[in-house]
Amino acid sequence: MTDRPTPPTLRAVVGSHRIAEEIFGTVYDPTIIRRIGAFVRPYRREFVVSVIAVLVFTLTQLAMPMIIRHAIDKGVMAGPAGMGVLRVSLVVFGLTIALNFIASHVQETVVGKAAENVLFDIRRAMFAHLQRVSLGFMDKTEVGRLMSRLQGDVGSMQEFLETSVLSVGDIVLLFGIVTLMLYLDVELGLITLAVLPVLFGVRLYWLPLARQSFIAAHETNSAVNGALAEGIHAFRTVQAMGREGVNASLYRDKVLANLATHLHAARLAQVLVPVVDTLTGLSMALVVVLGGSMVLDRQLDVGVMVAFLFYIQRFFDPIRSLTIQYSVMQRAMASGQRLIEVLDVPVSVADAPGAVDLDQTDGSVEFDHVTFGYTPSQPVLHDLTFRVEPGQTVALVGPTGSGKSSAMALIHRFYDVTSGAVRVGGRDVRQVTQASLSRQIAMVLQEPFLFTGTVLENIRYNTPTATRESVVAAATALGADAFIRALPKGYDTMLGERGGSLSTGQRQLLSFARALVADAPILVLDEATASVDSATEQLIQNALRTLLKGRTGLVIAHRLATVRRADKIMVLQAGRLVESGTHRELLTQDGLYARLYRANYASFDDSDGGV
Amino acid sequence: MTSSRNSQRPVLEVMKIADAHSLLGGLATLWRMTKIAFLTPWTASLGIMATLISAVLQLIIPRLLGHAIDLTQTLAQDHSGEARAALITTALWVLLVSALRGVFTTFQNYYSEAVNHHTGVELRLRYYEQVQRLSFGFHDSVHSGDLITLGLLDLDGARQFFSTGLARIVLLAVLIGFGGVMLLQIDLVLGLLALSFVPVVGWFSSVSQLRLRLTWRDLQDRMAVLSRVMEENLGGIRVVRAFGAGDYEMGKFDAASDKALTLAHDRVDIRVRSTGIMTLAFLGSMGLVLWVGGEKVMAGTLSVGTLTAFLTFMTILQMPVRQLGMLVNSFARTATCGARVFAFLDLRPAVASPSDAPDLQLSDIALRFENVDFAYPAARDAPVLRDVSFSARKGETIGIIGPPGSGKSTLAHLIPRYYDLTGGRITIDGQDITKVSLSSLRRAAVVVAQDVFLFTTTLENNIAYADPWAGVEAIEGAADDAQINDHIAGLSARYHTLVGERGSSLSGGQRQRLAIARALVPNPAILIFDDSTAAVDAATEARLRAALQEGAAERVTLIVAHRLNSLQHADRILVLKEGRLVETGSHADLLAQGGLYRALYDLQTNAEDRQGT
User: Fold this and answer.
1) Cα separations (Å) of A471 from A455, A463, A510?
2) Scanning A44, A312, A433, B210, which has the fewest C-beta atoms within 10 Å of its C-beta?
3) A561/B contact by beta carbon, under 8 A
4) Which of A68, A100, A282 shows the shortest C-beta gap to B95?
5) What percent of chain A has pLDDT over 70?
6) Is the CB of B243 less than 8 angstroms away from the CB of A602?
7) What is the ipTM score, two decimals?
8) Measured at the alpha carbon of residue B196, what is the angle toward residues A102 and A112, in degrees to the nearest 5?
9) Whether B297 and A76 lie within 8 Å, measured CB to CB
10) What interhelical angle do A302-314 and A44-70 show, nearest 10?
């Protein structure tokens, strides 16, 4: 690989391409303000208090140079008679300090905590909403994307809420400085303030430039981070394939591109500093020359000149924070837009008004001319009709995309049918409460999903009635007790991320145990396709038999053993029920099932269009 | 899967940072960071110089302004013409010094930022290289999430040492040192009063920043728990819905969320309490200066200009002094984050060849295991392979089978040296694999793994992973042999189709066939299938076997499998039990022997019949 002639094309990248999201939105969008405002409303008292506090704080800041001016002109410069005035000024100064302290304390504490509360509330509302939105939405949406809503976007709202109160103070401070300077001396005020519009203008011209470089730096950051994460996750493949060298040079390219965007952004961020400092210097120089002459001519008190110099040094602070606030606001609007999108995802499956609890069922399941599509125009199930008798085990087989999983999802009402009806225990699933329906149906998914927590917690999951004893009993019945006890802390062993420390077979047994503990009259099970060794396979088959005992079972079957043991086999193809009967009956029929069976596929549906 | 391989521990525990909390250890870390910062000596020196100059210029401004005020006073009576001229000169100085201060502040900020970024580049490149270099044994022992946190958060915390630590300390030293001396020289009492806020503010700022620093990690941890609760909920939403566990999950969310919120509130309190006191101390000493200074002016021992200079100087000093805490924070952050990063960078890969190791020379392609013993690094006292010996030559296909935990996959992983042996040796054409360069060995021996990792890029890039310069024919040929070409040809973007996240848009069987194509591209001399056709159906597997027949004559092929029919056609089958080689022979021989192989065979073929009836 190393001593090749000049390569024709390098077919290599590190890290993935991801579509970047808008960082900045419009500055002011009334809808977003209104919607986010609804979350602020419970804390409106806090926000009012902090706005008042920030106003008081700003006024004390404005007052201080005025007090100093008073102390100098009416006290210090007024000869011995001024001593009293100086003392009084000092007392006032002390009071102002105390006020300043209280106001800033109140403002920062109240607004800081209220902002945290608001954003935790927003996150909770979104999370709660996601528990109710249709599974169709969840299927389509990457978890990572939702997480960036719940974390990143919520975070930029926090920034906005905290600074928005401060910007009220900044505006007051800016106007206060202008007003006081004009009050102290109109002429001198006007002349020195002449630089203000220039400052604003320069800053506004600069803003879009800075923003572009900010976005570029942000994007190259995620490219670099993505490549690192990939390198960490893929170390086996990288080392097995000897890609270290190529990857290192591709990564270096990304890191250097990132450096370039950051240096550019840093240059842009700094370019305004000399402009601002020069303009500030110019204002001070004007005060020195013009103000100084006026003092010489006794047209101006020297204290006024001192106050001017103090105010000029504070000039740029509010302008800078206001322009920063402008960007924060735009970012918040873009984030707010995305937050609202999540909150507005329709809840398509909800309890009907007057839905009743489904308490007792005989365990029968019935599909009555069911047609269903994730988008109604493209049905994946066509006019499906069948009935599963209480206690019966039915195996569903068929190639990938034949609609098996969709049919199973309808039993639990993950989606609503387009036409026809699904009945559980004789009741249309749309007329009973979802909570009660889920108590009647236990589900085992194809990919066993385990949560971070102990083995016990994972098996008990949402079955509050399950005791430690019943969990152990379930695990024992399924033949999982032995391996669980062999774990470092037995049933109290913490499982790693998604049960990472367990084998595939062990994870399956735990998900079986979870369903057994839930003890519902109907079991819907999607058999795992992952291959396990024959001993584990047998353990799982035995466990499955235990699990199905005494309940109605609907199984999406991949293993021949499972299929052959079923009371009835239903063969689906392209959303239609094409054959049904026992194993022997279907073999005699010599249809699709017989063909699949003879092809000796490892599983019935990974035949990859071979049917 | 053997459990010994999967016993993961937190990365910090694995790295054993002994001196993270000792003062000396901290200083050593800071020194190393400083050395890295000065890898760009010019940028760093310019940053320091600009910081010095801009600090000095800052000190001049209050004096100029004070001078201007005095000019309006002392010469008010008779020399008004001279005074006006002097005022103009002073004004020009003010303008010039301000402009220069702006310029040097720009340099200071820019170069300091630049050094931070260069430090980041240096650390990132080293980090990435280290991730790729460290052996399987290390990666097995840590959570990947920990490595990502270390490479993102800790690295980022450490890389900003120059601007937040080194440059700032220079700035503070000049402002407080020079400025302080200047003030004390002008007027001792007034100077002391003007500086009286410095220790108070410095102390409170440092304490609060340290407390914020300590609680920051806690907050990150609590937020990580909250994230995990949300992520697992969203990832496992079907389980949540299936068990009607919405309320239960909200309960988990609230518990995690409340914990994070409480700490967030605490942090607000820590921050606010100290800023309030700092402001109070600053304004308090300003009041004292005004009081004492005012009385001195009235007594005629101080000019009003000097008083103004004192007050102006205090406003300039205020910000940097408040940042003293940030300096403390920066040192603490760099010491802890840097220690973690360096501990990782200093790890030595367990599997490595001497730097002068020759490349593997291939001739007959004869693979030999000689009395191989092996145990995983995490569990050295639990041997996985014991005294395994066998050999294979070019053209042979060797099957490996055994009950779970018998060491089948482990055996496969020893050939490309994912792990080093604890006893015995493995040779290829007479060369001990530990004596040849790792890159040449891994080019010669390729394992197709059980769990397929696909990259989020085109199918073409994935197939050409081992040899990114491979031509189109090589890629399509490999795909064809691996029985995936037909599927790819049916896609609208064909070989340019993007593979979804973790290859989610492909079925299990397709992913495995893609991995086989990827292993075929470099045309390895030893090709090892580690249960890599488990999800491929039998008919496709048969076609795959036929397609690989031709290439198999030129290489050694090892097949590790659960399914017996995957290796019935092997020239020889090795049967492993508890790490020992217990039977060897062809399918027919082994059946006839009536040993473990026979038992496994019966278990697999009869299981279905038994359950069917």
Assistant:
1) 10, 10, 10
2) A44
3) yes
4) A282
5) 92
6) no
7) 0.85
8) 30
9) yes
10) 150
In contact, B312 and B61? CB cutoff 8 Å = yes
What is the identity of the amino acid at A454? T
Higher pLDDT, A198 or B16: A198
Contact B102 A277 (CB under 8 A): yes
| Contact call for residues A304 and A184 (beta carbons, < 8 A) | yes
Asked if A7's CB is within 8 angstroms of B469's CB, the reply is yes
pLDDT of residue B1: 39
Cα A94 from Cα B285, distance rounded (Å): 10
Give contacts of A538 with chain B, Cβ < 8 Å. Answer: 603, 607
Is the alpha carbon torsion for B495, B497, B502, B505 positive or negative? Answer: negative
**Residue B572: other Cβ atoms inside 10 A:** 18
Give Cα separations from A543 to A439, A479, A508, A538 (angstroms): 21, 7, 10, 8
Across the interface, do B128 and A228 touch by the CB < 8 Å criterion? yes
A161-170, A366-375, B284-293: lowest mean pLDDT where?
A161-170
Average pLDDT in the A487-507 region?
Answer: 75
Residue A133 has pLDDT above 90, yes or no: no
- Tell me which chain A residues have a C-beta less than 8 angstroms from the C-beta of B507: 400, 606, 608
Q: How confident is the model over A309-333, as pLDDT tens digits?
A: 888 887 777 877 787 787 778 878 8
pLDDT tier at B526, thresholds 50, 70, 90: very high
- Please report, as a single letter, which amino acid is at residue A444: V
Residues of B in contact with A298 (CB under 8 A): 76
Q: Which residues of A touch B403 (CB under 8 A)?
A: 533, 535
Structure tokens at A269: 């961020």
A chain contacts of residue B265, beta-carbon cutoff 8 Å: 113, 116
Distance from the Cα of B49 to chain A's closest Cα (Å) equals: 17
pLDDT value at position B125? 93
Please identify among residues 122-141 of chain A the ones whose CB lies closer than 8 Å to any CB of chain B.
123-124, 127-128, 130-132, 135, 138
* Residue B155: closest C-alpha in chain A: A225
Cβ pair A310:B315 closer than 8 A: yes
What is the 3 state secondary structure string of A564-603? HHCCEEEEEECCEEEEEECHHHHHHHCCHHHHHHHCCCCC
- Please name the helix (run of DSSP H) or strand (run of DSSP E) that holds residue A510, with its range, or none: helix A504-518
* pLDDT greater than 50 at residue A80: yes
Residues in Cβ contact with B378 at an 8 Å cutoff, skipping those fewer than 6 apart: B4, B5, B7, B137, B140, B141
Query: Which residues does residue A494 pair with via DSSP β-bridges, in sequence order?
Result: A454
- Among B163, B555, B560, B90, smallest CA distance to B323 is for B163
Contacts of A438 in chain B (CB under 8 A): 241-244
Q: CA A119, CA A159: separation in Å to the nearest integer? A: 10
